[in-house]
Amino acid sequence: MSSAAPATASRPAPRPGVVARLADRLPEDWRERATALPGPMAPPVRAGTATPRIAIIGSGFGGIGLACRLRQAGIESFTVYEQADHLGGTWRDNTYPGAACDVPSHLYSLSFAPKLDWSRRFPPQEEILGYLDGVAEDFDLHPHLRFGAEVTDVVFVEPDDGTPGHWSLRFADGSTDEADVVVSATGQLNRPYTPAFEGLDDYEGHAFHSARWDHDHDMTGRDVAVVGIGASAIQFVPEIVKQARSVTLFQRSVNYVAPKPDAPFSARTRSMFQRVPALAKLYRASIWARFEAKWIWFKKDSRTAHWAEGLYKKKVEASATDAVPADVLVPDYPLGCKRILISNDWYPAIFQPKVRIVSDPIERFEPKGVRADGATYEVDTVVFGTGFQSTGFLTPMRVTGRGGVDLHQTWKDGAEAHLGLTVAGFPNLFLLYGPNTNLGHNSIIFMLERQIGYVLSCVRRLTEGGAHLIEVRPETQAASNDQLRRELDDTVWAEGCHSWYKTASGRITNNWSGPTYRYWLRTARPHWKDFVGSAEG
Ligand SMILES: Cc1cc2nc3c(=O)[nH]c(=O)nc-3n(C[C@H](O)[C@H](O)[C@H](O)COP(=O)(O)OP(=O)(O)OC[C@H]3O[C@@H](n4cnc5c(N)ncnc54)[C@H](O)[C@@H]3O)c2cc1C
Ligand SMILES: NC(=O)c1ccc[n+]([C@@H]2O[C@H](COP(=O)([O-])OP(=O)(O)OC[C@H]3O[C@@H](n4cnc5c(N)ncnc54)[C@H](OP(=O)(O)O)[C@@H]3O)[C@@H](O)[C@H]2O)c1
Hints:
With 537 residues, the protein is an alpha/beta fold. The protein has a domain at 45-191 and 390-475: FAD/NAD(P)-binding domain, CATH 3.50.50.60. Helices cover 28% and strands 16% of the residues. It is built from 14 helices and 23 strands. Strands 5-4-3-9-21 form a five-stranded parallel sheet, covered by helices on one side. Strands 10-19-11-12-15 form a five-stranded parallel sheet, covered by helices on one side. A hairpin with an 8-residue loop joins strand 6 (151-157) and strand 7. Helix 3 packs across helix 12. The two termini are 18 Å apart. Flavin-adenine dinucleotide (FAD) binds at residues 57-63, 81-84, 89-90, 94, 99, 101-103, 108, 149-151, 185-187, 189-190, 232, 397, 432-433, 443-444.
């Protein structure tokens, strides 16, 4: 590489796998083959090898996970830039009451950094954030983390002398930096969306978004409106209902809400996982397999989904009352088209007399409240559970690739990438949790780990494989997206409903098109023939 930092052997790479530990004692050709092994099994790069400078943008599960794996691979020439003052992404920002994961944490955690003493199946936000903090400690990532560093511009610089280009980064404070490789780990759900309702600026009460919870605002005795009833709202509404005088829910669409099979782990179970970590691995695998089996529900016209939908509708219809009629309980779109939610306290909360559900569209805000269907609902607090700006991947960063091409211009009809990871015309730029890598049925961490493995293979190609640039061929990207679109057309998301998985024009830019094992197979290793120039195999 033109501008490289030497790999350092000063600190042992944390937790290498068995083959990785053996690798230096293996014959050279065996060692070379072992570098293609997935995960922490691959041996670290040899001490003293020149490694590319890597800029990772974002310190959520994606950025932190990649940083750990780079250290495991003996690569120290990276920096994680984070706009906030702490790591954690989603789990730093979403501190609303009741926040928790909805994928059991034995699976919603990094496979190479297992936590064996999770307090319960679906632990609360603080415990997940604490886990990420602990991972950063264990892997000694702090020297690599730069907080308060919002990246605003990323530009690919092509020197006139024909030498490989590099990336120039600009930050919100005007400072700059350079890198050979840029990895965007900016997530899909970190820019809160608050609709621009007419009159909102004149509203005299207190209003905030669920991802920016105002913990100083005591809800006791308040009249609260909640706008938007999605995965966040169904977690915080039952908590607000415990304190507020009245709660008015502005519900534009109805959710499918299934029971949450949650419970604390007994001391005995936790100690068993700690004594026999293989059991925790087996448990993790069993959760993955059970969730994977649910993929069948997401196929268009799935008989299993139709059957489950029928049962669900019958059950909730039967619970309808005058105050909570069937039309505010029964979804009018197929099961799975929006995220299927899980909760044990949602229905008990909404049937309380102090809760009112308004399904008429909001007309506007007024100084004292919210107007819908000709009536004004007077409230002193409004919480927006209206989700995130999910389809604007990498915004508001400006990303300029080869020939001055603007990434967002190429994405004007909807973001796309090859396997969600690489974009033609943007060499050595990699995306984690990029376009079409979200799921409706399994853990995002599983997907992130596949992407991290893929990026690591590319970095090793740049480090030890003689390549200078990794740039996907446009025809490869077009072909993989054609296949993706065909597969997505056969899913429930292609049916009528709107959701954060789609652009305003209806293009599904967020979700992966199949079961996660298929993504695993397609990303298991990069096919070098898919890349132009020096990465070609
Ligand atoms: C409330 C909530 C609950 C969720 N629960 C689940 C769940 O149970 N199971 C599941 O699978 N998924 C869940 N998700 C999805 C979740 O977002 C992913 O699972 C995962 O946490 C994404 O990690 P990430 O690192 O890709 O992105 P994020 O966690 O969003 O991290 C992105 C980071 O990039 C930083 N950043 C962004 N732009 C810049 C910039 N320009 N410069 C510098 N830094 C920048 C952000 O500040 C942030 O720290 C949930 C999402 C939300 C909002
Ligand atoms: N672990 C968990 O349990 C958990 C918790 C929170 C979030 N998450 C993840 O984060 C994603 C986002 O969740 P979220 O609840 O924050 O957002 P969301 O699912 O996108 O829900 C947003 C809600 O706001 C409503 N809304 C949006 N614009 C509106 C408008 N102009 N007027 C009225 N209502 C409006 C939506 O209605 P429509 O449905 O009609 O659009 C929807 O009810 C989830 O799908 C999930 O992947 C997971």
